[in-house]
Amino acid sequence: MSENRRPQVSRRGFLGGAAAVAAATAVPALAQVAVAGPAAAAGRPNILLIVTDDQPKHTEWALPKTVAWLADQGVKFTNGHVTTPLCSPSRSSVFSGRHAHNHGVRNNGASHSLDQSTTVQKYLKQAGYRTGLFGKYLNSWNLADNPPHFEDFALLQPGYVDAQWNVNGTVQTINGYTTTIVKNRTLNFLDKAATDTRPWFAYVTPYASHGPRTPEAKYAGTPVPDWNGRPSVPENDRSDKPAYIKNATGTLADGQTIRAEQLRTLLSVDDAVQAFKDKLQALGQLDNTLVIYVGDNGFSWGDHGWTAKSVPYRPAHEVPFYLSWPAGGLGSGTPDHRIVANIDIAPTILDAAGITPTAPQDGRSLLSSYSRDHLLVEWWKQGTGAGGAPTWSSYVAKDKQYTEYYDLTTDANGTVSGTGQVKFREYYDLVNDPYQLANSLYQATPAQEQALGIPALAAQLAADRVA
Description:
signal; 14 helices; alpha/beta; 2 domains; four-stranded antiparallel beta sheet; Arylsulfatase, C-terminal domain; single chain; 20% strand; Alkaline Phosphatase, subunit A
């Protein structure tokens, strides 16, 4: 979006002028905390970025220790999103701070389209940070290829037990549960801080809670709280939905199974996060470590009959999103209700580290007072085969969502082809219809569309898609 092209407010610049800003406007909760904090006096923070796989909201039951640390004592973003609900595009947005239509990784096959000179790990390493990657990297990445700008890494070929890894350039099988291996490799990386005085960046990304959702042996069969669905599960009347949703067959029982399996895999993630906190405390680095926790996309538990991601409905693009940085004034338990997204992670990290990126970014630092009124969310269909969601883009605000589906597809390299014709549209009043049951554009008259403000939303969406 064009509004995101404004020059970033640096952490130091924002803090220096915060009194004037606070006097003139009501800034979001996170910015208010940052004003009062000692961030300007702190040295460059360490960065711990934890990205889980396919983790939707409403999974906090499995993460009591994570929530107690990062949400209850840090910041919980209540409107956290991803800008493309698919693994590689989302992770590329995390790295670059850019929408998929700008970084070029439009599907899971196009990982090599990412310009590695524009990533947060490149900027941090160039600025003298020690960098490490532990877990999943990018789909379709050749395991034997070392991930650029990480000096210490254990790159996982996705799997849960006895998986293949590339450990600092050597491809090997490591026996054991992969979340535990990710945990231990990360702890070893953190331990080096005792003798290496450089600030560090750890990108930690377990395979949980991605399918096949294999739990650690000690958590297999662990009882989880009952869940009887929500109004969108499975939504029997889908006459106002696009064809692929009309044909979806997911049931409440399917959703219950997926949810239970996801929660069990996340119990091991919670153990790992607690171990990281304990290690940081032992090293004396807990206060000046910026920790960000986010899911790379959400997942549908039978909503509208759908049991996957890749769709414009809220369970697929809304994700858990937490942040903690006590030395930056962000360690006291603060809800932040701004619309935030994965594109904001790289700008936030660079802002905290005092680094100005040389390439443009679509996201904005969460340490600033910036608050968007809506977010572009987008997804591309790969290939021309039948089934699955067509290419779509969506205008997402707190109170409404407008979506267009297009005659467009991508090849394995992310190259787009098609007429671009709008094939179907949806509009949901999220205040009165939070579960997106009634598409207000279904059989709407031109006058009704005008009353909903559709022409202006369509124009804004068209502008966002090329910004």
